[in-house]
Amino acid sequence: MLRAGLKPLLLTCLLLGWSSSSMARNMELPLASVYAAIAPLGSDEPLFSQRADHVVPIASLTKLMTALVILESGLPLDETLEIGRISNTFGKNSPSRLRPGTRVNRLDLMRMSLMSSENLATYTLAANYPGGVPAFVSAMNATAALLGMSQTRFTDPTGLSPDNISTARDLLILTAAVYQYPVIRDLSVQGQADMHFRSPVYSLAYTNTNPLTRNENWNVLLSKTGYLSEAGRCLIMVAEIQGQPVAMVLLDSEGLRTPIGDVGRINRWLRNQPPGEVPVAAAEYARSRIQAMR
């Protein structure tokens, strides 16, 4: 059952961070991402946005909502679940190093899901929800509605479906909501993890899909990456910049590290430094995606 406390938590979050008016920038901000929203954490007044109300696929950014529904359910995080197989990958290639039959507790499944975007771990969480995957997806959509994410819809828990859609503005709301949960924050920014399984016995090493979580020059407070061909490269990240938490939603760019380049430009822009230019190939990709909308 969904807790009524979600909205008060979000209202509390709105008190954090800078005011948008106090952080007005005097320089242009070139980004490779086609859709973007940047705001003091919890604010509904972005410091910067572009096409923030366009509804687009969000790929594995979905997994933040999956984690939120799991925590809201109150299901025990130390309960061990059996790894099975994903029933529908929506035509996507979704390899996993997890062996079917492996038993893993919910906390470690969330760890692999958030830090390394492990699809089978994520699916296992949903499959073991009361009522299975259909009930879990219904809970995702109910939570989105409760939060006021009016342009958001989920059809699967992993993000493999291109029909999981939202806007950059809606995702700022989700970012503020999940930030209230220390376990989501901590797991999402864990740089790497060695997972040791007992049944059967084997080990796997996982690395965070956001390299900035392992960069000592950044204080990353929340992170989730995503990719589908329909969605491009996506990133939700909260980072401390000039002593304050800033939420960044970046959707649809080309190139594995392109969102990271955008984050660097945002960081410099917020510090009133020249943000730098977007690489030519990334800019061409963005132009082609924008032209395709017309």
UniProtKB/TrEMBL annotation:
Q: GO terms for biological process?
A: cell wall organization; peptidoglycan biosynthetic process; proteolysis; regulation of cell shape
Q: Which PANTHER family match?
A: D-ALANYL-D-ALANINE CARBOXYPEPTIDASE, D-ALANYL-D-ALANINE ENDOPEPTIDASE
Q: If you read the UniProt record, what top EC class would you report for this enzyme, in one word?
A: hydrolase
Family listed: Belongs to the peptidase S11 family.
Q: Name one Pfam family in it.
A: Peptidase_S11
The Peptidase S11 D-alanyl-D-alanine carboxypeptidase A N-terminal domain sits at 47-253
Q: What is this protein called?
A: Murein-DD-endopeptidase
Q: Where is the active site?
A: 60, 63, 117
| One annotated GO molecular function | serine-type D-Ala-D-Ala carboxypeptidase activity
- Signal peptide region: 1-24
Keyword list (alphabetical) reads: Cell shape, Cell wall biogenesis/degradation, Hydrolase, Peptidoglycan synthesis, Signal
**Binding annotation for substrate:** 224
| Enzyme Commission number, as recorded | 3.4.99.-
